Every structure is written in C-alpha cells, then in structure tokens.
Amino acid sequence: MEGDVSPKIQMLEAAVAVGRDSLRLAEFLKFFIAACHVKMLCQIVSHSSSSGFFPAIVCREALCNQHFIFSHLSLSPDSNYSKLKFIISSSVTEACNNSVLLLGPRGCGKAAVLELVIRDLLIDHPDLISVIRLNGLLHSDDNCALKEIARQLCVEYQLLFSKMASFQDNSQFMISMLRECGLAHTTIVFVLDEFHHFAQGKQRLLYSLLDAMQSVTSQAVVVGISCRMDADQLLEKRVRSRFSHRKLLFSPPSKKEIDGLLEGILSLPLDSTLPREYAIKFNAELQIILADKRFKDIFDTLLESDSTVHYLLRFLFLAVSSMDVTSGLLSLGNFKTALLSMQRQPKLECLKNCSFLELYILVCMKRIETREPNTYNFNSVMEEYKAIRDRSLPHSRSACLRAFEHLVRCELISFMNSGGYKQSIELRTVKLLVSSHQLRQGLKSNPFCSSNLEKLLDQKCQKL
Amino acid sequence: MSSEGRRQTRASLASASNRDVETHKIATTHKPTINDLVLGNEPLSLENLLSSFPGRRLQIDEILRLLGPLNSPMLPLFIYGGPSTGKTSVILQIFKHLKRPFVYASCLTCYNPRILFESILNQLMLHQRNKENCYSSAKRCERPSDFVNFLREALINILDNLKGKSGKSGPKKLLEHVKGYMIYLIIDNMELVRLWDKSSTMLPFLFNLYDTLKVPEVGVIFISKVPPDSYYSNTGYVEPIAVYFPGYTEKDIRQIFMQNQTDPKLYSSFLDHVLGPFFRSTRRVDELSVAFCELFKKYCEPSGELEKEGAKRSLFNHLRPHILPALNEIFRISSSEVGPDDEKAKVNESSRKLGHHETTEEMDFHMPFSTKYLLLSAFIASRNPASHDDSLFDPTGGCDNRKRKRKCSVKTMELKEMAELESLMKGPGTFPLERLLAIFHCIVETAVEIPVDGEKQEHSFLGTEIGCNELMSAVLLQLSTLCNANFICKGGSCPLEGSTRYRCTISEELAFKIARSLKFPLSNLPASASVTFTSSRLALGEQEAVSEALPIFVVTLTQFGVPTIDYSLAVEFALGPSAGATTRTPHKDQWWSLQVEVVVVANKVEAVVTISEFVGAAQEAVVDVSIMGPPKMTVLESIVVFGSPKWTDMGPLVPEMGLLYWDELIYWWDEELANRDQALLETLQVSTRSRKDEIASLRQELSILREEKD
C-alpha cells in the first residue's frame, strides 16, 4: 500500500481545503477511507453486490477444478502426463493393446493426470476413444464390475442394457464389444481406480479382461491406479503374465513445481469476466505476499508435514475462503488462519473440552497406568478416585460412570478388547488413548484445571 | 426415511417451525417439490441465527466462509465436536438462513448402507413414501456402485431444474425460495459408520464421494462426534476440511439456559447457585437441562414471599439440601415420567445401572417366587467363592476338620491382595449350573424352615414343588427367562469342565430388594460370622469366679470392594449350653449385658465387646458378628480375646455360619499376657475412639509375643 500514500495526502489536503463545515468533512472522510483501499475496488464492490462475490468464486472454482490444477504440472516433456499420453495415443494410432499402472501416494493427482490425458486425447481423436471407468471401492466384486462395464459400454454405444445378464453373458458381451471396437479401430480405455481392490480374491475380472485383450484383435488400454507401490505384486501369476509391466510413478511435486503451482492457481486470469484492472491489482498483491519471508515460513511449516497436491489445495481453499469480502484481496493473515486450522490437535481439543470431573478421572487412570499397566477397569479407577477425590466433586458411582462414558465416547479412553461387550462397562479393562505429555498439555489448557490436579499427576511421576 | 424425516432436527428452536411444515404436509399430502430441499419458509436473518446460538459465533462464521458465496464450489467439510455442542442444529439453521437446497441423512436413523442410500435418493428424487407406493423407496439400491450411478443421475436432474429456473417462466414462482444451484449432502453421525459391517470400504467410499461423483456443484458435509484422527485406521481417502465445535463455556451455558425463560431474574439467581457445582461435573447441555429442570421446580416451591429482600437467601437455603444428591445421581430421568407399561425397560435399566434405584424401597416389577429365589441363589453363587458354600449351608459347620493357620503369612497377604484385585477386575464370579441348583435347594429349604406369615403357604408349596425332580424343567425354564432378561448372563464355557457357566449381573441393591420382598435374610447371611468357644472349664456355676474375669473381644473386619457408607455392625455375644440358631437367645436363668463399641476407620472396622455383667451358667460362648454390608467384600480379620486364665482351654474357634474368609482368622489367647498386662486391658475399657491407637499397639505387642512363642 506504499504507493497509495501520496494520493492519500493530496486528498487529505483537499479535504481540509474544501470541507470547512463538519458535515461535508465527514462525508469526505468517508470517501477518503473508501479510497484508501485500491481505487479499482470501488467498481468491484458495486459489481459484487449484484452478483455474489466474484473473485472468491473464481479462486474456489480454480481450486476445485482438477484439470486446471494439473495442467500446470504437466507442461514439461518428461512429465507423467506426456508419458501417459504417449502410451495411450500410441495405442490409438497404432491399433495395439496396452496396459499401465499409475502408482504413487494419495493426493498426487494420478487420476487427475489421467483425466487430463483422456480429455486432451478426446479432443485430438474424437469418436476414436471410449472410456470405461471402474473404481475398486465400488466394483471390487467381479460380477458387479463386469455388469458396470457392460452398462457403460451400452451407454457409450446406445445399446440396450439388460440388468438380468449373468457374469457369463456380460463377459461374452465385453469380448464381442472388444472385437467390434478393434475392427472399427476404436480404442477402449479401461480406468481401474483403486486397482489393489481388484487384485483381491480370484481376480476373474482382471484375467478375463487381459485375456480378452490378448486373444481378440482388440484395441484397448487398461490403466490401473493405486496408492500401493506393490500393486503389481498382488496379481496372480496368470494375470501377471498377461500384464505389461509398465509403471508410472507419481511423487509429490517438488518445491519449484509447488511455487509455480501456487502462483498459477491463485492469480486471477486477466481475460475473465472480472475487471482487468482489479485482476492486475489482485495479482500484484499476491506477488507481494508470495515474496514475503513470513509467508515462506508458513508455507515451509505446511510442507513439512505433507507436500502432496491435495494437501496444498486444502490449505489454499481455507485461505481463499477466509478472504476479506470488502477488500477482495488475499492477505498474509488468511494464510496464517489457514495454517492454524490445518494443524489441528484433536486430542488436545478434546481434553480442553473435558469437565473437571472427567479430567480427574483421566488423572486417576494415568496414575494407575504407571503403577499397573494394562490391567485396570472402572472399579479400580473408582478406588483411585476415592483416594484423591476433590471435595467439590460428587462421590457417587453413577456420576463418575457417566463421566467415564463421556470419555469413552470422546475416544480419550477406550476398552482393551472389543469382544467383551457382554460384560458391563465397569468390568471391562480400559486404556488411555492420550500420552502423559498430551495430558499435561491438556491440563494446562483446560480452564477448570486446578494446580492441585497437576500436582497429583506429577506425584505419580515422582513415584516412578 | 421420507423427506419429512430429515426435518427432525435436534434443536428445540427449529422444531417449532418444522412441526408446522410437517403438519401442513401431512394434511395436504402434496407432491414434494424442489422447495422441500430448503428448510423452512420464513426467512432467518444472520442476526437471529447468531443470537439463537450463544457461543457459536466463530463456528457459524467459519462455516459460512467455507460454504462461500452463492454458487461457489466447495471441498468436502468435516464438522466435529463433542455431543450436544450444536453441530447438527447449527448446520441446519445455517442452511435455513442461506436458503440453499440440501439433503440431510443421519447414520443414526439410516443404520445400514442401503437405508442411507435410499434415504438420500428419495430426498433428491423428490420421492415421498406413502400408502400408494406401499412405502417403497424411489430406487432399490444396495451397492455403492448403484448408488453412485443413481446419485449422479438424480443430482444432474435436480441441477438442471435449479439452473433452468431462470429460463422458464412456469417453475420460476415455484422456486423462489431456493437460492443458487449448489446442492449439499449432509451426512450426520459419521462415527457410527465405523461400526457397520463393511466399514472398511464404506468409510473411504463416503469420504471420497465428492471425488467419485465428479459433479462440482455438489457440496458434501460430514458431521461427526469424534475427531478426524479416529478414522485414520481406515486409510484410503483424502482428508476433508475440518471444522471444530468446542464445548460451551460457563458463560455460554448461562446464555443458553436464559433463553426463553419466563422469569429471567429468578432463573438467573437459580443458575448462580447451581451452575458452578454442576459445571464441574459435566459440560453437556442436555444433561444439565435434565438436572436443572427438577431442581428449578424445587427452587420455585416456596416462591410465595418473593418480593422480600431475604427471599433469595431463603430460596437458596431451601434448595441447598437438594443440590448434592442431584449432583451425585447425575441426570437420572425420573421414572415417574415413564408410563406403567414400560416395566421391561425399567427392569433392564435397574439391572444395568448401579445405584440408580437406591431411593425406591419396593421392587418396581413383578417376579414369581421361585424366580426370585433362583435369582438370589445366583447372586449368592456369583458373589461367594465355591469353597465357602459348605460353611454357609452345612448346619454342622463342615470345616472344623481343617487346620487353620494361626498367622497371616506374607503369602496369604499377597493372595488377599490378588483376590482384592480380582474382585475389582472380574466383578461377580461365574458358577456352573449344578452349584446354582444346589444353592437354590438350600435356600428354598431355609425359607420353608423360617415361616413368614402370609407367605407361608407358598413357601411350603414351593419347597415340595422343588423337591420333586420332575419339576426341574420348570426351574430351568425360569433360568432361561432370567438369562433373557439379562439378570444372569451365560459366560463362556469352561474348557476343562465343558459345561456352560453363568454369571449374575444384578446389582446389590436389586438383590437386597428382592431379598426384602421375600423376607430372606440375605444381608445377614453372607456377611455374618460367629465364633463358638466350647469349654468344659466354662462351667460358670460359681458366679463370682466368672464375673471377675469376663473376656473382652476385639473383632476386626476389613471391607473392600465397594464400601457401603451406611455400614452397620452388630456383635452379639451369647453364652449357652450349645451353639445354634435357636439357642442363641438368652435362657431364663442367664442374664448378661454387653457393651459394644464400634470404630470404623476407612475400610477397617473394629468392635470391642465387653461383657460387663453375667449371671448364669454356660458351656459355650458364642460371638456372633453380623454386618450389614456387601457380601464377600468383608473379611473377618481377627477376633482377639483378652480375658482371665479360666478361659484357657477354650476349644477351637468354629465358624458356625458365614461366608467370611476364615483362613485369615486368628485368635489369641494368652495366659501370660492376660496376667502381665492387666493395665492394657484396663485401657481397653476407656472410650473406644481414643483407644484406637492403643489397640493397634496392643496388637503389635501381641504379634511380637506370638513370634517369640513360635
């Protein structure tokens, strides 16, 4: 905002010169305050009041659009994008079968890159590619998967789909469709998301698919997507032998790529419906933030825990959603709040939420645990509680049992064996799910905690 | 679930307006339209929204920001926080404020995938289950794969409707309430999905729903009581954006309770007294409101002289005695609200919850006599080790042939500790069927022996009935009834014996209540002990000789487990020709007076029995200790007898009847000591309370002496 200082002063002088009477001065000051923001914003604010707030939506749309994001990462010639595109397009142009596995941790954009490739290929060769999408979470059952393949093929070629068809029928149908497509020089791309789920059981689907591709003069590509690096090892021998061992490894983007991505996602396009001047101002503001040392610190702490694209997107989404509505610009504060809500410590939050009685019970359990780990239940907790009870707390069993149940529900404590639900709650062995460090921190953050309670926790530590 | 179902929200605020909608809908049975995807007709301003949720301003702001302006896409949200922190209400009211279409499904009511899927689809397809379509759903959908297809179809359909609304003139009027073309799926109670059969695929599927659908105009919101990290074990999804609802602070709670109060001043002064102590126990609004409801009624009782200055004070004084009990039996819903036909529910509750029914003296359900006896025998079998059965039920004593250890060795002390720990860990013990039946026979026999007026006939009838073998099936039938009612649970079968073992799960209160209704001496039976001294030298003909050297007994007991607060101990001393239940009452020609002083310190009970006067003759002395307390939880530690040498060749201590641990019993008779330490004996006769330490030192000395002697 340094650039705005001189106009401000000019305006102030003008105000003093023009506005002798207080009313006009006040009006002028109001205008002046508005003008302290970027000049162009005046238009924007008037614009935004009519049709919702635009810049935020543009950013959010950009964040929710996978194609847009990964097109930034796919520019270099040796990227996975170009490799994958080469594989599939060679199959389209040279009429051959192919199979490939996309492996990498979650949130690296395996499926998104594939979608991008398919989209671009569909533009290049319309009518020559049809895509069948399966998901291991949905179609891990072989029967169900073949039915889904048949259904999608029917939709693709405007055929009548029979729900009653058996596995055999559907399999026959798929093979004949493969043959037909091969004759028509159309490529069918089978996308198997969550590939490792298909590799469970007898793998009949994979076998019949890969077998059909070998025996029939077909033209198909099987693309498996999995987060398990050993996904190809899961395959049976007969399936593995029919599978080309082509693998594309995806890894989280490098620091440099992330920097490019940041800028690419957040900066507003100049040719959109937004006023051009505003977009320029917005982007300039963004550049200042990105260059800021403090922002870099925030960003580094973020990437320390996770540097996948999805994680980054969540962070940016939080930042954009906390954008100031009146100014319409991103600020450093937005990123700070986003980082705070990314770094949550649920256990501590839970502990902060506990009532005094519940804290007391936790401390009792901690004390017992150091003495006799793994063998205590509510009855022994009650014994301990009676020994160190605070006068202001209720002494009855039922009240404590209630608090105990709360703790179980908050998952601060849990029962040791899940099988013992025939027994009543008092008798089942329990364990703490918080470490003593967490408990101590929680005690400190809890508004009810007395120093006495902390002392009780420390006493036990001295005993050890 | 019909589309009405989702209108049931937990907020009392919303329920009023919802009810209007519902009755309206039922009355006219109109076809649901897209308008029904928006909650409520009347507008809700942001100020109203914020003021109706005290202490939730930050969360509402955050959610509003994340939902974004109209028609902006959204990544999945995950809202979590403890129970009764207003998650569901806040979300629903926010959507009421925004007037955006949404679909709400709770995994609590939709308890399996199929019902969840169909509920969502019914709402989206504007399908209403009614009589005409035989309450069937719009689509039959069991598999996630079908669900995704149907859902995508339905969403695209709805979105076309919503987007096309500006184009057509016809439905424009219809859709004036709905804002924007984003549609939101709200899935409540996500933590329950973890308990479903296919949770390992369902959870990743639901969390990935947004990515799988590939419809950018859909926003997915999850509501959960547990934090996101408790879902980590089911890996395989990209984490949603988390919003946390913290618990209310004391100030917020006060604001919440002050809402909709007719007499704010009175209620505020009531909260001054009550909120503090209760807030230390729980921070949940629902529990607090139940507790406060009752208390406030009590508080208002003497509200005649409100206008006076001291009224506040007197009101508080009136209330004060009620606070602590209410705090202790926190949040019991009074059973008066439960209808009389809900007996079964109450039975279950009383069996499950310890200490919830101590106030009611009578049993609040009916049970046949033989079933009561069966239950009592199961209780006795569960609470006492099998080795004590003979001492309990054999009239001849049954264990005088056993040699007793005179001293508590380290090993027995350890064993005792182990037993203590075990009783804490395992609770009531298990028993085989044979033992249950044996005890059942025994106690039915004693019941016949002790005729109780009014029930005499039934008892004797019962006795004969049970005596017959052919009616054993009836008893077994009742056992299975008790098992079904969860009074007795079938444990795992013992691998060695191969037979099924049972465990009694009823609380002591319930057992005593049943015993009371049968007039069965349960409280005396398990925890009483008597010691009989037989002696030929105890020919107490010469009155003078005896009275100068009457013995003093110091009885020490330990109670562990769950010490009862109202603990009473009665020590009875009897001299008579023979020991037995019938002769324990004094004969005509005998007369004595006893002084019993009882000290209860922590879990040790000490009773000093002094015989001050004695007239008559006896061969035997019987000390009968009966304790009104929990059975098995009491151990007779020692009975120490101080007295004159005339009592020397007192026979062995014979436990006559009782379930105490006799292994630990020591008795001490020492001529030497008695002669030497007359002074000590004298000190015993001073006030018992101050004597506590002396008794301890005395005992120490005794043990030293004993060691020397050994």
Walk me through the structure.
- Chain B: One of its GO terms (cellular component) is nuclear origin of replication recognition complex.
- Chain B: Pfam families: AAA_16, ORC5_C.
- Chain B: Keywords: ATP-binding, Nucleotide-binding.
- Chain B: This is Origin recognition complex subunit 5.
- Chain B: Belongs to the ORC5 family.
- By secondary structure, chain A is α/β, with parallel strands linked by helices.
- Chain A has 3 domains: 1-36; 74-249, P-loop containing nucleotide triphosphate hydrolases (Rossmann fold), CATH 3.40.50.300; 348-463, Orthogonal Bundle (Arc Repressor Mutant, subunit A).
- Chain A is 61% helix and 8% strand.
- In chain A, strands 2-3-4-1-5 form a 5-stranded parallel sheet, with helices on both faces.
- In chain A, helix 10 runs parallel beside helix 12 and helix 16 runs parallel beside helix 18.
- Chain A is flat, with a radius of gyration of 31 Å.
- Mean pLDDT of chain A is 78; it is low at 1-9 and 12-53.
- Chain B folds into 4 domains: 5-245, Rossmann fold (3-Layer(aba) Sandwich); 250-328; 369-518, no CATH class; 526-709, no CATH class.
- In chain B, a hairpin with a 2-residue loop joins strand 12 and strand 13.
- In chain B, helix 11 crosses helix 12 (311-328).
- The N and C termini of chain B lie far apart (81 Å).
- Chain B has a 5-stranded parallel sheet with strand order 2-3-4-1-5, sandwiched between helices. A 5-stranded mixed sheet of chain B has the order 12-13-10-15-17.
- The N terminus of chain B is likely disordered.
- With 710 residues, chain B is α/β, with parallel strands linked by helices.
- Chain B is built from 25 helices and 17 strands.
